């Protein structure tokens, strides 16, 4: 896994969402989380997002720096405030609410 960048150009007025997905290797949960995140971003943030995948098997010290206790974990760095979502991101509604892309019902 590596970085995914938006394909379409962003407008200066649209904030770029910086998202970090913390995983442990290429496990089924990690792959599902990345796939789900990519789909959600394409549907709701088209052209306005950056995904950085961080494999904690290769960089374990980053878990302590970001206070990551479970995997996979998604961290929204920008726009602030920072938000964290744990799991494979299969519950789209929960992810949208967690990222502040949709108000909870």
From TrEMBL:
Protein name, as recorded: Circadian clock KaiB family protein
Annotated Pfam families: KaiB
Gene3D superfamilies per UniProt: Glutaredoxin
Classification via InterPro entries: KaiB-like (IPR039022), KaiB_domain (IPR011649), Thioredoxin-like_sf (IPR036249)
Species name: Methylomonas rapida
All copies of domain KaiB, residue ranges: 20-101
Top-rank lineage group of the source organism: Bacteria
